[in-house]
Input
Amino acid sequence: MVKKINEELLSDIINELSGKRLTGYQLFNTLKEKYPLLSKRLVYHYLSIALKRGYVTVEKVNESGKFSWGIFTEKKYYTRA
Output
């Protein structure tokens, strides 16, 4: 069974990334007001669809700091292609 993609949400995600470099979590916080039932998981799912279609690019950045799991983390920043 193939579920239909919400093209409006996909378009909003792509448009929100215009001229910006955001993580999926930052994108979620930006869009949750317009889409009250939006989940972080759905944002990442739509980002993966946008990546496959070539609408966005991803940059992986290693950052250091004091995290509960250690001193390093890898963040993914998404931008419009």
The chain has one domain: 7-80. Residues 28 and 58 are 16 Å apart (CA to CA). The longest strand covers residues 56-67.
